[in-house]
UniProtKB/TrEMBL annotation:
Keywords: Amino-acid transport, ATP-binding, Nucleotide-binding, Transport. Pfam families: ABC_tran (PF00005), BCA_ABC_TP_C (PF12399). This is ABC transporter. Residues 20-289, 334-572 form the ABC transporter domain. GO terms for biological process: L-amino acid transport. Gene3D superfamilies: P-loop containing nucleotide triphosphate hydrolases. Belongs to the ABC transporter superfamily. SMART domains: AAA. The keyword Endoplasmic reticulum does not apply. It comes from Alloscardovia macacae. GO terms for molecular function: ATP binding; ATP hydrolysis activity; branched-chain amino acid transmembrane transporter activity.
């Protein structure tokens, strides 16, 4: 009883002290109000989640809070210090550390080096003149001070280096099974999930006042999501203040004290997680007015269970070799024949054979580090084939460059979209036509006609044609990535995680667009997707990869109904409660 009373008093004390205050915050892009007068508090020791469909204003809000955007009006205070309009570096100095929706690590640096960068702002002896870094005339002195400390060191610098090394080990210990043996590996060699873990560790190492996590489990499967939930619960127990943006309601419900739902740049609901996620207005915002099945609504409300995800990886690794090829009446557009790929001494792809027929959607399934992205990169010419062959339209393209493959009609919608953030929507579309001949007026007119066709297919892009692509929502960026790929007139589009980080309503739109590419334009699609049930629901054919080898193959329907696939990738009969 006494413990319960103590916890109640602690909660009241936390509620009495607002660490982050936001008042009447607004931001517009070319007249479009992305954030429309929102206000909220984040209290010390609290976990607050912001949810909402794509385009609701979540990303703009956290970019305003972290200094990546300047608000048009409104107040942002951290511990009673005004930070609205300050740079990202200054906000970080005030105690806010963040991760990013699409994951941002320095690929050529090791895991240890990436994590160490998160503590740079708190270094003292190694940055002896850091106070001058924001002074226009004297900022070069701070660089000179760091150079001197690096070259000549001293006892204080060595003590600080030892302290940082211990902090890095602590962060790696949180993910010992995942990162323990990879500390000295370049992060570009890691799976997507391990890059996300590295990014979280980099944000946490500085013990920030506020830890801002932007969709930390995007692109992770059920077991990996469950692992992150346990880590967040541990951080919560330690008293960390966390601002979380997420689409997965099971995660939100498990870790949040308070939830804010946004739509159209405004807050449409706030309060207790259970009350917000079951609010009819919130459910409609996620699913639209034509609400689907009870199962769809249950996904938004987070009524599925996190249970039994501990055995998912075991189940995925226990698939017996079965049918590993497909039979189609359609002619083959792309064929991989016994392809082997190595990363150094690591055998990344082992005798992989697959076929993408003309005008078909083919889904490539598998857990993280199974070889899905490696297969995609190999098809696009980014990986060197050690042995085997790639045939496209009957032509051997094994040793062709990526540019030549694009010119022959292979396009890509990469993982995390990879649009050019500092370029407008229109400029991004033009990059998709870079291989086309625009030296003549007829060529330029053809490209202009295709841009207009993309605006008609994706009306939201027409509305935002002059907007910087980096300021758009994740769903809008995904539309742009689709349109950019279509600008090259492809026969085959390779899509890597096209629904990652999207709300259910937008996931449905993206899947409809993929089907339309096949049915209306006759484009073949090879799709890598973590959400196996979604991928197989629209796929004509599918392959299951495990440890660089094809383990299963068949029609989308047969794999969807295969008990082994259901257990390993769909969480049994119910799947994950993710939105």
């Amino acid at each position: 009883m006494q413990t319960q009373q103590t916890q109640t008093l602690q909660k009241k004390a936390q509620k009495a002290q607002a660490l982050l205050r936001v008042r009447d915050l607004t931001k517009s892009f070319n007249g479009l109000r992305a954030v429309d007068g929102i206000s909220f508090d984040l209290h010390r020791g609290e976990v607050l989640s912001i949810i909402g469909p794509n385009g609701s204003g979540k990303s703009t809000t956290i970019n305003l809070l972290s200094g990546f955007l300047e608000p048009d009006s409104g107040l942002i205070d951290i511990d009673d210090t005004a930070i609205a309009g300050r740079s990202a570096a200054e906000v970080a100095e005030r105690g806010l550390a963040r991760t990013f929706q699409n994951g941002r690590v320095f690929g050529s640096l090791t895991v240890r080096e990436n994590i160490a960068l998160g503590y740079h702002k708190k270094l003292g002896a190694t940055r002896p003149l850091s106070a001058l870094q924001n002074m226009p005339v004297l900022r070069w002195l701070s660089l000179l001070g760091e150079t001197g400390a690096a070259l000549f060191g001293g006892p204080a610098v060595k003590r600080e280096e030892k302290d940082v090394a211990q902090r890095i080990e602590r962060e790696v210990d949180y993910y010992r099974e995942r990162l323990g043996s990879r500390e000295d590996d370049a992060t570009y060699t890691l799976s997507y999930a391990n890059r996300r873990r590295t990014e979280i560790a980099r944000a946490h190492i500085s013990e920030p006042e506020i830890l801002l996590l932007d969709e930390p489990t995007a692109g992770m499967n059920q077991s990996e999501t469950a692992e992150v939930i346990q880590q967040l619960l541990y951080l919560k127990e330690q008293g960390h203040t966390i601002l979380l943006v997420e689409h997965k309601m099971d995660l939100v419900a498990a870790v949040s004290d308070t939830v804010i739902a946004m739509d159209g740049g405004r807050i449409i609901a706030s309060g207790d997680p259970d009350a917000v996620r079951t609010d009819p207005v919130v459910v409609e915002a996620y699913l639209g007015k034509r609400v689907g099945s009870d199962a769809d609504v249950a996904r938004v409300k987070g009524e599925g269970k996190l249970a039994s995800q501990t055995n998912v990886l075991t189940q995925q690794n226990a698939l017996d070799d079965a049918a590993t090829s497909i039979s189609s009446e359609r002619p083959a557009l792309l064929t991989m024949q016994d392809v082997n790929v190595y990363y150094g001494q690591v055998h990344a792809l082992e005798d992989v054979s697959l076929t993408v027929p003309e005008g078909a959607i083919v889904s490539l399934l598998g857990g993280n580090a199974s070889g899905k992205s490696t297969t995609m990169k190999t098809l696009l010419g980014l990986n060197k084939v050690t042995s085997g062959a790639l045939l496209y339209g009957g032509e051997d393209i094994t040793h062709l460059s990526s540019r030549d493959r694009v010119q022959r009609g292979i396009a890509a919608v990469p993982e995390a979209r990879r649009i050019f953030p500092q370029m407008s929507v229109y400029e991004n579309l033009l990059t998709g036509a870079y291989t086309r001949d625009t030296r003549t007026s007829a060529g330029r007119a053809a490209v202009a006609a295709d841009v207009q066709a993309m605006y008609e297919r994706f009306p939201r892009l027409a509305e935002r044609r002059t907007q910087l692509a980096g300021t758009m929502s994740g769903g809008e960026q995904q539309m742009l990535a689709f349109a950019r790929a279509l600008m090259s007139h492809p026969r085959l589009i390779c899509m890597d995680e096209p629904t990652m980080g999207l709300s259910p309503r937008l996931v449905e739109d993206v899947l409809a667009q993929i089907v339309a590419l096949r049915d209306e334009l006759g484009v073949s699609v090879l799709m890598v997707e973590q959400q196996a049930e979604l991928a197989l629901s629209v796929a004509d054919y599918g392959y299951v990869l495990q440890s660089g080898r094809i383990r299963l193959a068949g029609t989308g329907r047969s794999l969807l109904n295969d008990p082994r696939v259901q257990e390993a990738y769909l969480g049994g009969a119910s799947g994950a409660a993710a939105v």
